[in-house]
Amino acid sequence: MGPWRRRRERVRQEVYCKLSK
After folding, report:
1. DSSP letter string over 1-21?
2. Which residues, other chains included, contact 12 with Cβ-Cβ below 8 Å and sequence gap of 6+?
3. What is the predicted pLDDT for the residue at 1?
4. Measured distance CA(5)–CA(12) in Å, rounded
5. b/e for 5-14, b at 16 or more Cβ within 10 A?
6. Pair 12, 5: CB distance under 8 Å
7. d(Cα 6, Cα 21) in Å, to the nearest integer?
């Protein structure tokens, strides 16, 4: 979805949770 997923590869799970809600 963006260049952030490359640096926050480990935080992608947290971001998915926020996008899911």
Report:
1. --THHHHTTTTHHHHHHHHH-
2. 5
3. 57
4. 6
5. eeeeeeeeee
6. yes
7. 22
List C-alpha distances in Å: 7 to 2, 15, 20, 21.
Answer: 10, 13, 21, 23
Token pair recorded at residue 4:
């952030």
Quickly count: other Cβ atoms within 10 Å of residue 15's Cβ: 14
1-21 residue pLDDT tens: 566 656 666 777 787 778 876
